[in-house]
Write a structure and sequence with these properties.
The termini are close together. The strands form two sheets. Strands 1, 2, 3, 4, 5, 6, 7, 8, 9, 12, 13, 15, 16 and 17 form a 14-stranded mixed sheet that branches. The chain has ten helices and 17 strands. It has a domain at 25-251: Metal-dependent hydrolases (TIM Barrel), CATH 3.20.20. The protein is an alpha+beta fold and 332 residues long. The protein has helices at residues 42-51, 73-78, 106-109, 113-121, 133-140, 156-160, 176-181, 183-186, 189-197, 235-244, and strands spanning 25-33, 56-62, 85-94, 97-102, 143-146, 170-175, 203-207, 225-230, 247-250, 257-260, 264-268, 272-278, 284-288, 292-296, 303-313, 322-326, 330-331. The longest helix has 10 residues, at 42-51.
Length: 332
């Protein structure tokens, strides 16, 4: 892709983020997590994440709850060091659905959090300040992702025509919170394929959407996350890699080898039992029942994306979904 552009919505070159990754470091993290209810505090959250071998977390409370939050700036700064990063953000209520805005808080993007709270909890009619928020957030450099998009199933044409769709960087194809309630709600790969097939250019993501921080609960942490290739463990570097698609989505399965050439896509994972390659409209292009596979690119697939299926259940998941990893599409 062009170095000065990011695939968001329908406006990017049909290439892949997986070029030369040899100079980049690998960081594991989740970026759709809430801080009300069962949030243990910044220091405790850091220790929980570290025990799970996570390097960063994005804390994205609902916009309408921010007026009630004391972010404890000193504790937030104290919880970070060279080996752990906390990125602040929020989850916006939008006509398309809930949208993660990672890297910036509501007031920085023009969202009136107090108005949003009144509209939701006090049933007060009014403008919550969402007009133009996506454009403003994108201009600031926020990472924007549509969360748990199951309500758009069978309506891909309508979704990609929604105002603001062109500013999205990603879409959740797995949401642990929703998957714990219903696999149909939590696993939305079909919605993702529908958007890609209709010209959408979005990265695929997996997140826990944790509210309780209890790993035994369906809304607990760690059952969906990103493996990010970035230069450093910094806010700027992680956001840049997420926006460029230099990551893959996982529920517990991780990739050992990933290589893209002009003619092939090769992937390998020791804990993998099946690798499948999909193209336009979710068409199955090839399926291999082993831990490595090389797909030869024909050029007429529209896009090619790989899904890896593991031997074990998803990490910390109560959704009965076998551990998976989803690579970003190669657009052809």
């Amino acid at each position: 892709m062009n170095e000065d552009s990011t695939p968001r919505g329908r406006a990017s070159d049909p290439l892949s983020p997986y070029g030369d990754l040899s100079t980049l470091n690998v960081y594991r993290g989740m970026w759709h997590a809430h801080i009300q209810g069962g949030f243990p505090g910044f220091m405790q959250a850091r220790e929980l994440c570290r025990r799970g071998n996570f390097s960063f977390v994005g804390l994205t409370e609902h916009d309408n709850r921010y007026p009630q939050i004391d972010y404890a700036e000193k504790e937030w700064y104290a919880a970070m060091d060279e080996e752990f990063l906390i990125i602040r953000g929020f989850e916006a209520t939008h006509p398309m659905g809930h949208i993660t805005c990672l890297g910036f808080l509501p007031e920085q993007t023009g969202v009136d959090a107090e108005a949003a709270r009144r509209i939701r909890f006090e049933k007060v009619a009014g403008d919550a300040g969402y007009d133009g928020f996506l454009k403003t957030a994108a201009g600031l450099g926020a990472f924007l992702a549509l969360n748990h998009p199951h309500r758009w199933r069978e309506r891909g044409d309508e979704l990609i025509r929604q105002p603001g769709f062109e500013y999205l960087d990603a879409m959740e194809l797995y949401n642990g919170n929703q998957a714990g309630k219903s696999r149909q709600q939590g696993v939305t790969v079909d919605v993702y394929d529908a958007c890609l097939s209709r010209g959408g250019r979005l990265w695929g993501a997996a997140n826990p959407d944790c509210h309780s921080w209890d790993v035994e609960q369906h809304d607990g942490p760690f059952n969906g996350y990103s493996v990010v290739f970035a230069e450093t463990l910094s806010r700027r570097a992680i956001l840049d890699s997420l926006k460029r698609g230099r990551f893959y989505a996982s529920t517990g399965l991780e990739v050992d080898e990933l290589a893209l050439t002009a003619t092939s896509l090769r992937v390998a994972a020791a804990q993998c039992r099946r690798i499948r390659f999909f193209g336009r409209a979710g068409q199955l292009l090839e399926s291999v029942t082993k831990d490595e596979a090389t797909y030869r690119l024909r050029g007429d697939e529209g896009y090619v994306r790989a899904e890896l299926v593991g031997h074990t259940p998803s990490q910390q998941s109560v959704s009965e979904l076998t551990a998976r990893a989803w690579l970003q599409p190669v657009w052809l």
